[in-house]
Structure formats: structure tokens, C-alpha cells
From TrEMBL:
InterPro entries: GPCR_Rhodpsn, GPCR_Rhodpsn_7TM. GO terms for cellular component: plasma membrane. It is found in: Membrane. This is G-protein coupled receptors family 1 profile domain-containing protein. It comes from Adineta steineri. Signal peptide: none annotated. Its main location: membrane. It is a multi-pass membrane protein. Residues 27-271 form the G-protein coupled receptors family 1 profile domain. One of its GO terms (molecular function) is G protein-coupled receptor activity. The chain crosses the membrane at residues 12-35, 47-70, 90-112, 181-206, 212-238. PANTHER family: G-PROTEIN COUPLED RECEPTOR, PYROKININ-1 RECEPTOR. PROSITE patterns: G_PROTEIN_RECEP_F1_2 (PS50262). Keywords: G-protein coupled receptor, Membrane, Receptor, Transducer, Transmembrane, Transmembrane helix.
Length: 271
């Protein structure tokens, strides 16, 4: 019975993770294209989202592919190359770190942009030349920052909705970007928390009733963790009308170019 759980976990990994990789790379690539369009790229928040999408593409195409071979087919590529071992180890730590940092910076940008104080709004244009990280634990600072600035953004948005004068000045795009960020922060916490709890239990060696059940749950929660790297595109579509409009315009432009090429007569077919 227990070993059937392991086989079920492996089959789930083989079935779902390839779909996550393909959808993730395509959706993050579309994110980059859409967020670089003129209606969105002038906002600092969009730059952080673009950087996060680039990091997600590297993580999905390199790290998740490696984990698929390891967890689904028991093929460990790092055993055959020391260079590949260092490269995968680097991306396994670097890409999630960059994604979380970009989410923090986007949260700070949205908080400052939505503030009623003109002095705070000016801070969003500040350029930092020296950043010193003294986080001993290593994970609390990033999680707390996402949570704190996410709540502050929600507070500022509700405060703006009560002020008609400010709402008139506060552009519609700014509100939609704030909504995109809030939804993404919530999904990030929900999808990452189960796997991080399991990983923490693994690090501090908490005894579990069955190692096989633990491994099965570890595989399932790891898939949820992967989902955090593909959900931004779909969350943006659901939460922001401007993003949906830009996606539709992009698709229409693509179809027009395709149809123009398809109906173009061949050079030798003219009579």
C-alpha cells in the first residue's frame, strides 16, 4: 500500500510537471511581451514583473526539468558532470530568490504609488546604490516584506476609494497593477507554504509516522511549488482588464501578420 503511494507520486510527477514546464515557459514569455507594451512598460511595477518572468523561465526550463528527471525517472544528471552540478545548484537557489525579491520590490512600488503622501510617492523613483543584507535566518525577511507591503497596498487602495478627488487622479492602470500584485502575493503564499513547511521539517529532522507518506506529500507539494512559477500570467488575465485588453490586441496583431503571410501570392504563380 505504501509503495503504491510512491508509484502514484511518480506517475503524477511524470504527468503534470511536463505540462507545468510547457505552460510556464509560454505564459512567462507572453508576460514579457505584454508587459513591454507601451500601456504597461512605463510603470516600475511592470519592470519587476518582467524580471520575475525571465527568472521563472530559467527556473522552469532548467531546474524543474532536472527535478522531473530526478523525481519522475530517477535520472540524476549532476552525477555525470561537475559543471552541470554547479550550474543547477546555482539556478535552484538563484531563480526563486530573484522571483521573491522582484515580488517584494513590486509590493514596495505599489505601496508607494498608492500612498496619499506626495513624499512617499517620490520615493518610488529613488535609486539605491548600496544594499546590505543581514538576514541571519535567510527566509523571514523576504516573507515578512511581501506580507507587510501587500497589506499596506490593500490599505492604501481602500483609502483611495474613499477619497473621490484622489480616485479621479489615481489612474485606472495603477489600481489594476495593484490588484495584479495583491492576487499574486496571495497565490505565492498559498502555493509555496505547504512545500516550505515540508522542506523545513526535512531540514530540522522532524520524525514523521511514515517516510513513504512524507515522500508522497513532498512530491505533491513540490508540484504546488512549481505552480507558483506559472500562475502570474493567468492571475493577470483574471484580475486586470488592461492586461486582458493588451493580450487581445497582441493576438489580433499576430493573426493579422499570419493571415498576411498566408495569403501572399507565391512569386512563380502570377499569370
Amino acid at each position: 500500500m505504501d509503495y503504491s503511494l510512491i508509484n502514484a507520486g511518480i506517475q503524477i510527477t511524470r504527468s503534470i510537471v511536463p505540462i507545468i514546464i510547457i505552460l510556464g515557459v509560454l505564459s512567462n514569455f507572453l508576460n514579457i511581451i505584454i508587459l513591454r507594451r507601451s500601456n504597461l512598460k512605463r510603470y516600475g511595477c511592470s519592470l519587476y514583473f518582467i524580471t520575475m518572468s525571465i527568472s521563472n523561465i530559467f527556473y522552469l526550463s532548467i531546474c524543474v526539468t532536472y527535478n522531473l528527471l530526478l523525481d519522475g525517472y530517477q535520472i540524476d544528471l549532476v552525477r555525470y558532470s561537475s559543471i552541470l552540478c554547479k550550474l543547477i545548484s546555482y539556478f535552484l537557489n538563484f531563480c526563486p530568490y530573484i522571483s521573491v525579491c522582484m515580488l517584494i520590490l513590486a509590493s514596495i512600488d505599489r505601496y508607494l504609488s498608492s500612498s496619499l503622501s506626495a513624499q512617499r510617492r517620490k520615493l518610488r523613483n529613488a535609486i539605491l546604490f548600496d544594499v546590505y543584507n543581514n538576514d541571519i535566518i535567510g527566509c523571514t525577511s523576504k516573507s515578512n516584506n511581501i506580507f507587510i507591503f501587500g497589506l499596506l497596498t490593500i490599505y492604501n487602495t481602500k483609502k483611495l476609494n474613499r477619497n473621490r478627488i484622489v480616485v479621479f487622479r489615481y489612474r485606472r492602470t495603477e489600481r489594476q497593477l495593484a490588484r495584479m500584485l495583491i492576487v499574486q502575493v496571495l497565490s505565492h503564499v498559498i502555493l509555496n507554504l505547504p512545500f516550505l513547511i515540508m522542506f523545513l521539517m526535512l531540514l530540522i529532522s522532524i520524525t514523521f509516522p511514515s517516510n513513504i507518506i512524507f515522500y508522497f506529500l513532498y512530491l505533491l507539494f513540490k508540484i504546488l511549488f512549481y505552480m507558483a512559477f506559472i500562475t502570474p500570467f493567468f492571475l493577470y488575465i483574471l484580475s486586470a482588464q488592461l492586461y486582458r485588453a493588451e493580450l487581445i490586441l497582441l493576438l489580433k496583431k499576430t493573426f493579422r501578420i499570419y493571415n498576411r503571410i498566408a495569403i501572399r501570392p507565391m512569386p512563380g504563380n502570377r499569370n
